[in-house]
């Protein structure tokens, strides 16, 4: 199944009125980046305490317990974001110091995506992961405002400058956000990961830099999310292919054609950025409620409709509960998280909900 780009994808009002809704969201970007922490809930602090005890190490590393104890830029970004959301400056600084020392490039301000403590060298692949870069920059910008640290603001701005310079390109009618520097651009297509569009971070990028190119990145990201949904449930795939000439969208080859581990973050980041349009939310809600809280799948095949033989972990359920699951109850706590990633998703939902009440 292939979806072609159009000027006004359902749910997002782009086109001549293109930036009205996006700018409305941007009107809240300054608040999100600078004052949301005043209303951070005790629940966020409590859940951060659990996350820190399970996944933070004294040297500043965040440990991915679901992937052999490796560390990566995404995890460092999440850890920094969680720490600043809880007002925990010492832990924030420890995580940032480690990321800067072990993952940040010497030739630009981006970060190698993975650290393997038992490997020599521990960073065998210098390729970046753009979501990790954006998460780290988001945390730095917020910490700069919260703790009155101009150096953090400058660090965030430097990262955003290099993301815009090195990780964006034109593909058909879109300016796209590359998942990393290497491996995603071919002669005829570009492969994207829509969950790398960390909307609160992209809004902050515009807020901090004032560069209007971020408007195009955000708007085109919304268009891609709206048009790049497939299968009976109209869900985004983990990996999306864009034809470099026509802009035609298809599920990327080389990965399972699934809505799963990566794409679960797409509705969460839209919700968190106040960009979850009604029609898009309705499609997610239809999917969540078809299965219900007790049978939500860990993945669904967008070409066959097949579902995973196991149910989704608590972090996936937390995302569903804030984006349209009718039977939503209390959010799961991190005490019962099976691993780092499920815990991270859950804590992100706690933060997004806390900021929703203070926006």
Head-to-tail CA distance between termini = 39 Å
- Helix content bin: 40-55%
C-alpha-based Rg, rounded: 19 Å
Strand arrangement in the largest pleated sheet: 1-8-7-6
The biggest beta sheet reads:
4 strands, antiparallel
In DSSP terms (H or I, runs of 4 or more residues), the helix count works out at 13
Number of domain modules = 1
DSSP, total strands: 10
Shape: globular
Q: What structural class do the secondary elements suggest?
A: alpha+beta
Give the CATH class.
Mainly Alpha
Task: Tell me the CATH architecture.
Answer: Alpha/alpha barrel
The mean pLDDT is: 90
Residue stretches low in confidence (pLDDT < 50, at least 5 long) are 1-20, 25-39
As for the CATH topology, it is: Glycosyltransferase
Order of helices and strands: EHHHEHHEHHEEEHHEEEHHEHH
Secondary structure: elements and pairs:
Layout: E1 2-3, H1 18-27, H2 29-34, H3 42-55, E2 71-72, H4 73-85, H5 89-102, E3 114-115, H6 130-146, H7 150-166, E4 168-171, E5 174-177, E6 189-192, H8 199-209, H9 213-227, E7 240-243, E8 249-251, E9 258-259, H10 265-272, H11 278-291, E10 300-301, H12 314-322, H13 340-356
Antiparallel strand pairs: 1-8, 2-3, 4-5, 6-7, 7-8, 9-10
Helix pairs in contact: 3-4, 3-13, 4-5, 4-6, 4-13, 6-7, 6-8, 8-9, 10-13, 12-13
